[in-house]
Amino acid sequence: MKGKILVTGGTGFIGSHTAVELINEGYEVVIIDDLSNSTTDVLDGIEKITGTKPSFHQFNICDEHQLKAFFEKEKDIDAIIHFAASKAVGESVEKPILYYRNNIGSLVNLLEEMNNVGVKHMVFSSSCTVYGQPEKLPVTEQTPVQPAESPYGNTKQICEEILQDTTKAHGNLNTIALRYFNPVGAHETAHIGELPNGVPANLVPFITQTAAGLREQISVFGSDYNTPDGTAIRDYIHVVDLAKAHVIAVSRMVEGKNKANYECFNIGTGTGYSVLETVKKFEEVNGVNLNYKIVDRRPGDIEQIYADTTYANEELGWKAELGLEEMMRSAWKWQLRVVGKD
């Protein structure tokens, strides 16, 4: 066993796929999740894929007392991957206080307990939203950070600042912020995937649920952006590729290969696809016709963003391997299993 990794938000979409990749690489995984956007069925899916069910603790890490009790019990954590956060851009515009309390408070609590018990390594789930609407594309890690377009994006900016300040103050703390672009898809086995509670805030689960007849139609937010087809452009990345980047980031710190106490990396494919291109690719790959309509822009959305992944490719030795077709195919396979049509 390589070591014990705490995965906060580990029954969520990205967290569960990362748990699988960690277990496959020989790590022991411990999960904390409050199940606000997931279910314990995910643990069964992880076990089906890996043969191992991670130990699981249900609580919100904003609860300082429960977090302290957890670390009193689990004394041999080698590193933390911190996913637990609220993540819907539109909701953050409507409920900013919820996002500031949950996203910032949870990180502060974790860092305090890490310092108390001597855990030295954290991978932080960041986002390309920290760049705001960049003046130049593609974005590199040196691209100037613009004002956030949403409270969600602002929490990620603030959390990265907190990490930078904390690593300066505590020289034995190492953190790596992975700035994701747009994770989609599902594990090839279809045992785990993206299954948000309630109405999906992200495009691809809305596509798959509409295709499955669970939603009447897809809303395409905005058709008047300065893009080739007028719809917003995003850099979609397969969730399994993203999960593997977390394993590499953990290993980098545990093995002492990091070059600074705080590092950040863009995790994307380097290719941007518009919302309409993504919808049409899903139709093409899966032979399904989708019902969609153009509606007004959604508050908080940026026009277009995609990554320059050169630094992550060269420094981490990581590269996205799965393309948009596999993203759309695996997402649909997962949705069919969820609705019992596989």
TrEMBL record:
InterPro entries: NAD(P)-bd_dom (IPR016040), NAD(P)-bd_dom_sf (IPR036291), UDP_G4E (IPR005886). Keywords: Carbohydrate metabolism, Isomerase, NAD. Homodimer. CDD domains: UDP_G4E_1_SDR_e. This is UDP-glucose 4-epimerase. The lineage of its organism: Bacteria, Pseudomonadati, Bacteroidota, Cytophagia, Cytophagales. Residues 6-329 form the NAD(P)-binding domain. It comes from the Bacteria. The keyword NAD applies. Its EC number is 5.1.3.2. Pathway: Carbohydrate metabolism; galactose metabolism. It catalyses: UDP-alpha-D-glucose = UDP-alpha-D-galactose. GO terms for biological process: galactose metabolic process. Belongs to the NAD(P)-dependent epimerase/dehydratase family. One of its GO terms (molecular function) is UDP-glucose 4-epimerase activity. Its cofactor is NAD(+). GO terms for cellular component: cytosol.
